[in-house]
Specification:
Keywords: Membrane, Transmembrane, Transmembrane helix. The chain is mainly α. It has two domains: 31 residues; 96 residues, no CATH class. The chain is built from four helices and no strands.
Amino acid sequence: MRIARVVLAVAGLAGLAWGAVLLAGFAVPAPGQALVAAGWLLGGPVVHDAVVAPVCGLAGFAVARLAPPGWRLPLTVGLVVSTVLALLAVPLLWRAYGTPPLPGLHDRDPVPRLAITFAVVAVAVVIGGFVSRRRKS
């Protein structure tokens, strides 16, 4: 167990050092890029800790307290999947062409596709809730 921890720690520190080298190569030559990098590296965690985490915690608390027992698991899974989808969609929703181009995919509007994906998750939650409720009775 101790050897595995040491190996994982060394690998993590090597990854951290490589990330620092890449950040220095990106931010040092152009001072404007340093400000952009600082905004992403500092702004993301602050927004997550100040907005996303409390909202998710309150939603989880509400599901645990208010939802019937057969619906708790499907609702929790649906909330987790929806949150991950929303976080992954931020670069596409933030600005046009927020990611590297993908032939055939990049030129489409992400908002309707995200809405359809949320609808599919909601349908899966409803189906899961009814199946779970039916199994318990």
